[in-house]
Design brief:
Blueprint: E1 2-6, H1 15-24, E2 29-33, H2 57-67, E3 70-75, H3 85-104, E4 109-112, H4 122-142, E5 146-150, H5 171-180, E6 186-190, H6 193-197, H7 204-208, E7 213-218, E8 220-223, H8 225-231, E9 241-244, H9 253-262, E10 268-271, H10 282-296
Parallel strand pairs: 1-2, 1-10, 2-3, 3-4, 4-5, 5-6, 6-7, 7-10
Antiparallel strand pairs: 8-9
Helix pairs in contact: 3-4, 4-5
């Protein structure tokens, strides 16, 4: 596997600074954020390290090649199935721009969310998944681009309740969505931490959906049992969980990586940092990436 990091944690840095940091610290790849420029709707969103509206293909290719760093995927995580049709149209249009950019840059992978209308049931959301996503997936397929959906519920705070803003979060839903959209270029950006706080098995799905895993995230999560005992599982999750650096939470990384090697996954493995303990400064955020690498290097040959 090729170890890298998601660039959202280096918000405020330029494209060149992100790639330089990756090269200087021994990373093979970076998942580069490509949000539309403007005000972010939430934390870790709105980061633009590749501007797909002003894409300089040769410059990006030459710069990354000179530094020996690959772009694992173009990252854009909106909610294109929300209850706001105008926002959905903008999100879908930008996803397609990301697909075109991935094709032009020979990255050929876009990581995103499938989205969800948080005020409707899973069944109601599934009725519109094929209508919205089948054309996007087929557009990407024509360009030789894969789309990987991260399994994050996007259900952490009160404004995301009751249903969350990303439908594709459980094996039961994976199966239904892949029945609706069987195209092989459509798959998962698999993150074990989101299964941990949902109290689900995060190893078994790796085997079942082995042919759909196009990209993986390395992010940990910590469940505070004393808080959970106070508020229960019906509370907003951030009342009893916290994202952590790999090795500082409840994911068993040996089992996770063992399962990935079992299925023959040797693609991009990207650290995603959302640990509040490392947000005080740019130095702290950079340190968090290297601390994660230092822990994970036991599983990598460098």
């Amino acid at each position: 596997m090729k170890l890298g990091f998601n660039s959202a944690i280096l918000n405020g840095c330029t494209f060149e600074e992100v790639i330089d940091f990756a090269a200087d610290n021994g990373f093979s790849c970076v998942e580069l954020c490509a949000w539309p420029r403007g005000k972010a709707l939430r934390k870790y969103a709105g980061v633009t390290h590749i501007d797909v509206d002003l894409l300089d293909v040769d410059y990006i290719k030459n710069y990354t090649e000179a530094k020996g760093v690959r772009i694992s995927a173009i990252a854009y995580y909106p909610n294109p199935l929300s209850d706001d049709e105008e926002r959905n149209c903008h999100a879908i249009a930008h996803i397609k721009k990301c697909v075109e950019a991935a094709h032009k840059l020979d990255i050929n992978l876009v990581n995103t969310f499938i989205g969800r209308n948080q005020y409707q049931t899973i069944e109601e959301n599934l009725l519109v998944v094929k209508e919205v996503w089948k054309p996007i997936v087929e557009f990407a397929e024509e360009l030789g681009v894969k789309i990987a959906i991260e399994n994050c519920p996007m259900l952490f705070t009160g404004d995301e309740w009751p249903g969350g803003q990303n439908l594709m979060t459980t094996p039961a839903v994976f199966r239904k969505v892949f029945e609706l959209i069987p195209n092989q270029n459509f798959g998962l950006n698999f993150d074990p931490s989101h299964f941990v706080w949902q109290q689900m098995d995060y190893i078994k799905p790796i085997y079942e959906f082995r042919n759909r895993i196009h990209h993986v995230h390395f992010k940990d999560i910590k469940i505070y049992k004393n808080r959970l005992d106070e508020v229960g599982v019906m509370a907003t999750p951030l009342e009893y969980i916290s994202p952590k650096l790999p090795g500082l939470g409840d994911v068993d990384w040996g089992k996770y990586i063992s399962a990935l090697t079992d299925i023959g996954y040797f693609g991009y493995a990207v650290i995603e940092v959302e640990d509040k303990a490392f947000e005080s400064s740019l130095k702290a955020r950079k340190d968090s990436i290297n601390l994660s690498k230092n822990y994970l290097k036991q599983y990598f040959p460098y």
